Amino acid sequence: MSHQSPEMLAEKAKELLVEYLARYDEMKPKEKMAIPAQPMREQDPDVRNKNLEEVAIGYTMEQARVEAMRCLQCKKQQCVADCPVEIDIPEFIKHVANGDIQTAIDVIKRTSLLPAICGRVCPQEAQCQMNCTVGKGLKDVNQAVAIGRLERFVADWEREQGVVKIPDVKPETGKKVAVVGSGPAGLVVAADVRREGHDVTMYEAFHKLGGVMRYGIPEFRLPNSIIDQELDTLDKMGVKIQTNFVVGRTRKLVDLIEKDGFDAVFLGTGAGLPIFMGIEGENLVGVFSANEYLTRANLMRAYDKDFADTPIYPSKNVAVVGGGNVAMDAARMAKRLGAENVYVIYRRTENEMPARNEEIHHAKEEGIQFHFLRNPKKIFGTEDGRVKAIEVTKFELGEPDASGRRRPIAIPGSEYIMDVDTVLVSIGNGSNPLISRTTPDMKVNKWGNITVDESQKTSMNKIYAGGDIVLGAATVILAMGEGRRAAAAINKQLKEEIEAGK
Questions:
Q1: Other CB atoms closer than 10 Å to residue 305's CB: what's the count?
Q2: Beta partners for 179?
């Protein structure tokens, strides 16, 4: 499909809105399903692959209302059941269709404090949109009601009006809660616990808040200004923040309770320990974990060469190993940093790739080259120890493995050489081991993830955990869902203590 200009999409939506407004209240489900899905306005691919500005421009008011009119307002609300934080999706979409955007954002904020972020980076096609009746009726999940785009629209609208509402905070209770890590799980816990009137202090190891949302997701997908504005809400709610504070080093975890007097602690320290392939040549100069590469570019602004001193490896031909969202982000960032050729090497086919369909589509548009059923076997270096090539093995798919995806099987004698000067490894991450190593009583599983019960409580009294440190590398919204459960358990614990006079 040819790239449609933002102006053309906006003009078409104006015509459609006039047409549908006249009969919206009387429209039958079949008529609503005939309303065309609204494409997202985007930068031209040949322009955006050279800048760090956001790829998606967003809906206009007319586009948002037309898209919202496609919602059938189902009695069985499967979209709500599939949302990890259970946003009342039909309710907020109904208000968008009617043009009442303030009420729409108010509905979302009952259960989610980060709509501008979730609207941009959540895998809606695998969650709230997966079982949408419209998508199922049209036999295409990509034709489901664009819930994420509508969430983004209402959040951006509120911010642009300059009327962002701050959640009410109940009277002070005298109880203190420490939140370790400022990623999506920690942010939800801080907000939900603070709403109940408890004193909340958030500890962040880096100099900037946001966790994986800031260091792992590029600005062309999630601008840092959006993160800053969402975080500003926590500050206005009275959450205290300490950056450059490494729990486990700056302060032992148990000391937060035993010496600092916190009544509960939430751990949301993430899964930032990169996993490598264990092949010959991985120690050469020019081999990086995708996480490090993105952290340098995102958190430390290495792309801003005129104003940032952070070094970033100059690359001409880049191989990115992996098929998830992080791999897509690293590949697309490498292109923007000046690489002439960027190759994504993935050992299965496109059908098995865990990356979002939208990210794969955007990468292809931007000139990223995909090599499926391939995997590196060895990395070759120059005499001075820099990457010069990789040896790649061809694969075929066998029977499904434990993940439900067909197992890749190497084809003997199929190896060949690719000339590259940089290799970015994106095959997964392990949980941050610092807490478990410095807290012997903390139970973890064989992968190093902290084990929790159904309320997110760890093996230690008064300590809860959630997000990637429990799940392994997951999504923003799944981490938020864990944060919501943990906050509810913490609030319950503190309420019982207050009622008992403790």
A1: 12
A2: 202, 266
Write down the CATH number for the domain with range 6-161.
1.10.1060.10
Q: Which CATH architecture has domain 276-427?
A: 3-Layer(bba) Sandwich (3.50)
Taking alpha carbons only, the member of 363, 284, 378 closest to residue 329 is 363
Tens digit of pLDDT for each residue in 151-209? 999 999 999 998 888 889 999 999 999 999 999 999 999 999 999 999 999 999 999 99
Task: Among 3.40.50.300, 3.10.180.10, 3.50.50.60, 3.40.50.150, name the CATH number for the domain at 176-272+430-499.
Answer: 3.50.50.60
SS3 456: coil
Residue-wise pLDDT tens digits, 8-66: 999 999 999 999 998 998 999 999 999 999 999 999 999 999 999 999 999 999 999 99
| DSSP reduced 3-state for 300 | coil
> Whose CA is closest to 433, among 277, 267, 185?
267
- pLDDT bracket for residue 1 (50, 70, 90): very low
What does the pLDDT look like over 446-487, one tens digit per residue?
A: 888 999 999 999 999 999 999 989 988 778 888 888 999 999
Structure tokens of 89?
């999706």
Instruction: Tell me the C-alpha distance between 211 and 371, whole Å.
Output: 31
* C-alpha radius of gyration, the chain, whole number: 24
**Sequence-ordered list of residues with C-beta below 8 angstroms from that of 121, at least 6 positions apart, any chain:** 213, 217, 221, 222, 475, 476
- The beta strand positions in 304-340, using DSSP E, are 317-321
Tokens found for residue 141: 């999940």
pTM: 0.90
Between the alpha carbon of residue 294 and those of residues 209, 299, 332, 459, the distances in Å are: 16, 8, 10, 34
With contact defined as beta carbons under 8 Å apart, do 192 and 168 qualify? no
Three-class DSSP labels, 151-189: HHHHHHHHHHHCCCCCCCCCCCCCCEEEEECCCHHHHHH
What H or E segment, with its residue span, contains residue 378?
Answer: strand 374-381
CATH 3.50.50.60 domain extents, the chain: 176-272+430-499, 276-427
Which of 332, 322, 376, 399 minimizes the C-alpha distance to 354? 322
The CB-based long-range contact list for 41-49 (8 Å cut-off, 24+ gap) reads 41/6, 41/9, 41/10, 42/3, 42/6, 44/3, 45/3, 45/362, 45/365, 45/366, 45/367, 48/220, 48/366, 49/332, 49/335, 49/336, 49/366, 49/367
- Of 86, 131, 100, which is closest to residue 480 (Cα–Cα)? 86
The answer to whether 297 and 495 are in contact (CB under 8 A) is no
Identify the pLDDT of residue 3. Answer: 63
